[in-house]
Write a structure and sequence with these properties.
This protein is of the alpha/beta class. The protein has a single domain, classed as Vaccinia Virus protein VP39 (Rossmann fold, 3-Layer(aba) Sandwich), CATH 3.40.50. The protein has 9 helices and 10 strands. The protein has a 7-stranded mixed sheet with strand order 6-5-2-7-8-10-9, sandwiched between helices. Strand 3 and strand 4 form a beta hairpin. The longest helix is centred in the N-terminal third of the chain and has 19 residues.
Length: 278
């Protein structure tokens, strides 16, 4: 195996990251591995992995210079690879770098698709392909099985993107829910009547009522618990099996800045099948 597919420096750019990215990638790899082992024996039309904030394919820990495989290379090298991959990024340079690395994997290059642009727009290209695959009737063959990892750096993921993906027959989601991004934007977005990045993140303005109610309780931890439960209730409305919990940790891992012990983001695992949340 060449350096491009190993967690080492390979002469190409890597995404600058904090130590905490290790925890995120651990959970993502575990979900992908379980997902593929559990589902590979069925007659799916396609098994599709979607990563709309892919980056260059590797991460480098800024304090130690340790290199890690990012989600694209993890997914490409899982024990039972997907049949099709969609990788997107706003930065052309990231996609060029990822494409160079991915060219060395065992997956057919014809089945790896690269998209440059805003994830909230490029998702339509992915959905169009899935719908085209699903329209092809094949006796005894199930529709496409899809897993989307949505990993923005902040609040760039709009709710409409989540809702569009959820319209697919079988679409599991791993969502980067940016608690830190909300902390930095809640007060100023709540105070304005204009449409804001938080409105787009939640897909409506009702989050303001949730925020106001939680704020009046004067419990800062309760604010984020209330908002994430509201977000998860919207996932439930889309048909996903979600678990709400009064416990601040609940069922979604909380990733912290390991130097400051400050909450950064949570990972929400959403499946329309009850077993997908175990």
């Amino acid at each position: 195996m060449n350096d491009y597919l190993l967690p080492i420096a390979d002469g190409l750019p890597a995404r600058d990251s904090g130590e905490w990215v290790k925890e995120k990638l651990f959970y993502v790899k575990r979900y992908i591995d379980v997902f593929e082992v559990a589902m590979r024996g069925k007659n799916w039309r396609r098994r599709i992995f979607i990563d709309l904030f892919s980056g260059p394919g590797k991460c480098v820990i800024r304090d130690t210079n340790e290199h890690l495989l990012g989600s694209p290379l993890i997914s490409l090298q899982t024990q039972y690879p997907f049949t099709d991959y969609y990788f997107g990024d706003l930065d052309q340079a990231n996609i060029d770098t990822l494409q160079q690395r991915a060219a060395n994997c065992a997956v057919s290059q014809a089945n790896i698709h690269f998209l440059v642009g805003d994830a909230n727009s490029k998702v339509n290209d992915v959905i169009a392909d899935i719908r085209r695959f699903d329209k092809q009737y094949i006796s005894g063959i199930l529709p496409c099985l899809n897993l989307a990892f949505l990993d923005p750096e902040g609040l760039e993921l709009e709710w409409e993107t989540v809702a569009q993906l959820a319209k697919m027959n079988r679409m599991d989601l791993i969502i980067h829910y940016s608690q830190n991004g909300l902390t930095r934007n809640l007060d100023k977005c709540y105070a304005t009547e204009k449409d804001t990045i938080v409105d787009k993140f939640f897909g409506d303005r009702k989050w303001r009522d949730v925020y106001k109610t939680a704020l009046n309780r004067r419990e800062s931890i309760g604010i984020h618990r209330a908002l994430i439960d509201y977000y998860k209730s919207k996932l439930s409305d889309l048909g996903y099996v979600v678990i709400k919990d009064s416990d601040e940790i609940a069922r979604e891992p909380l990733i912290r800045n390991t130097q400051k012990n400050a909450p950064l983001y949570r990972l929400i695992f959403a499946s329309k099948h009850p077993l997908g949340n175990n």
